[in-house]
């Protein structure tokens, strides 16, 4: 009994020591570059931020404009460089080089506040971004969404416009015919309105499976983004790319810094991703 108790005590002390080391590590000031790490197998880990609304709506998905500006300033001051979906795709395929500390800024749904509030801030900092729009909502379906004129203006000035399906229905609830229509029709509509190929999609509500991913590929998309929490690297599924969601919280900017700083630490311990 004494021998068993001794082993339990050693195990307990080991666990406490490990947790203490992690907590101390978290509390140390660290350069933001620590969030971008690389290893020989998966290469650079790319941070893909996921926003929705940039306004004063009292919901978690709505980041206040002043908080969004603070976050963009933080990225600029700490040496981040924004990239496009094509740049990310080419790098994952081994056909392109990413800048130091790459970050992809994405928005889901296509709210009008992306144009009114986020777009001027992105222009101020010279940042690229990507908006996944629900094509059936633009212009006519609901108030509060972008017009195609606004989408075209942004698209000509560093903001990629990509697909978020036609009606924002959860893909796992659809028949194959319904799913195919959502994928193909949204792509065609956006391409007609924008005048160029639309190659990327974000899954509405984040729901998908391998069958859906195959249909996305068959519809002509090069990659798809989820709401799965994590950084993107060469080990990622190109049709299930990870993102880091940004929310309004009691301390939005502190939580923003912690999310982008500690995410790779979680992955290095094997706590997240795959």
Rg over CA atoms? 20 Å
Structural category: alpha/beta
End-to-end separation in angstroms reads 40 Å
Number of domains: 2
Overall pLDDT, averaged? Answer: 85
Number of strands: 8
Shape: globular
Helical amount among residues, as a percent range? 40-55%
CATH class of the largest domain: Alpha Beta
State the CATH architecture of the largest domain: Alpha-Beta Barrel
Contiguous runs where pLDDT drops below 50 for at least 5 residues? 9-40, 264-274
How many individual helices? Answer: 8
CATH superfamily of the largest domain: Glycoside hydrolase/deacetylase
Write the H/E string, N to C. Answer: HEHEHEHEHEHEHEEH
Estimate the strand proportion. 5-15%
Largest sheet: 8 strands, parallel
CATH topology of the largest domain: TIM Barrel
Descriptive account of the structure:
One of its GO terms (biological process) is carbohydrate metabolic process. Keywords: Signal. Pfam families: Polysacc_deac_1. It is a single chain. The chain folds into 2 domains: 1-30; 32-268, TIM Barrel (Alpha-Beta Barrel). Residues 9-40 and 264-274 have low confidence and may be disordered. The chain is 41% helix and 15% strand. Helix 2 (65-77) runs parallel beside helix 4 (112-124) and helix 2 packs across helix 8 (252-268). The chain is α/β, with parallel strands linked by helices.
